[in-house]
Design goal:
This protein has about 280 residues and is mainly alpha-helical. The protein has 13 helices and three strands, in the order H-H-H-H-H-H-H-E-E-E-H-H-H-H-H-H. The protein has two domains: about 90 residues, DNA polymerase, domain 1 (Orthogonal Bundle), CATH 1.10.150; about 160 residues, Orthogonal Bundle (hpI Integrase, Chain A). Strand 1 and strand 2 form a beta hairpin. Helix 1 packs antiparallel against helix 2, helix 2 crosses helix 4 and helix 5 packs across helix 9. The protein is elongated. The relative contact order is 0.09.
Length: about 280
Amino acid sequence: MITKLIEEFVVHLRAQRYSEKSIKTYRSHLCYFLNLFYEYEPENLTSKQLEDFIIWLIEKKKIGESYQKAIIGVITKFYKELLQKDIDLKHLYPQKKEIKLPNFLMREEVKKLLEVTENLKHRTILTTIYSCGLHLREVLNVRLTDIKIKEKIILIKEIRYKKERTITLSDKLLNLLKEYKIIYRPAIYLFEGQNGEKYSERSVQQIFQNSLEKTGITSIATVCTLRHSYAIHLLENGIDIKTIQELLGHRNITTTKIYLQIMDTFKEKVRSPLDLL
């Protein structure tokens, strides 16, 4: 009986042109569900039993949010399309978490942060992160061959997605990089540790915190705050959101649009000049 129901469900999915990968996942979830309730006819299961099943998975099996969404979706689809029975399990979907807006520094604060970073290597690392809007791991993965001085660009390789993006180097950063390379003479990576290996993330984080402390800035900030500040400052300069998405390497523009929310929040706090008269 169970096998027949599962195969009928698979036929429906194929008719709806689901990918084989999706069908395999749906089949696995449905098989798990039906086998747990093998003593019951699926159409006779009550909403309370289905609800208890989902809660059991969450509390006892410690399933993640993605699995929770998937199993609810499969059960709902199974009942609707095979048993012609509408069941409402929407209240069991994970609630959307409130989006926490990232912190950023004002232009004057970034300037002060870089100025108090006296060590040339340290200042060059922080300046590169801010000037190019890089993740910490990205700046530490930059090789000398990724810097194209004549073209004034830097190639950022996104290993995860096997892609690369191009970012224009500012004249200020170019001059700083030239000075840095003359003094430190890196061999492979742009920023190297004492033995020629990649500079460590922990060291950069400590550099940032030391400089932040020197500035007296009380805002909560990390190395990643420089990347967020880069995006906000581009928006303030009138750069369109699509361009910023490409510069940051976001796959989904929704991720980039969070900076628009920050701008809206910031604008709400701006007082009218009339109030200052």
